[in-house]
Amino acid sequence: MQGSRRETYAAALDMARRDFAARDPAQAAREAGGSFDPARSTLFLDYLGVRYGVHYPSGRVFVASSPDRPAAEVPTVIMLHYLVKTRGATPSGRWISFRELPGGDVYMPAFNRRAVIWLLRRFGQAPERLLEAALRLGGTRLDLGDVGATLDVLPLLPVAFVLWRGDDEVPAGGNVLFDATAPLHLDTEDLAAVAGEALAALSRA
Q1: How far apart are CA 122 and CA 13, in angstroms?
Q2: Does pTM surpass 0.70?
């Protein structure tokens, strides 16, 4: 299984790099909300509060403050897919559930296990800790549920986390929401991974 996952990742990375190399780097950076340094042939992009560099045309992704330090596998593919797909749509401010994303029904059971249930297990008993963690990462308070917070995973891609406190009769509830423009920036499978990445960052914070 481990070998199969590695092969799948390698194939996805290879395709993402080819697609990225086909884009105009200055336009890609502009539409992604990043910047492009032609002298270094590098795009710069913020991902969960960390600045990364993306070399053009190789698609090598690295931590901008430490050019010899490569980005982790999942962020690498997500950032390349984002740079390939996005065309600069700004957030609408309208939040939608994962089920409302294209094909979201197909991934919904896995998304519930890996994101929504995980959110409840980590923060359901102490919702205020969710907001504290989000603020540490540069997020903002959201007026939804009993406690809500947003994180800009990528410059044009905010994700929202919402919790409802439980009581003796009703269990705690929660959800992970996306701006309605999210499908213009990433495919649904990538958005599921984005939610997991954001939750991991919240947990660390």
Answers
A1: 31
A2: yes
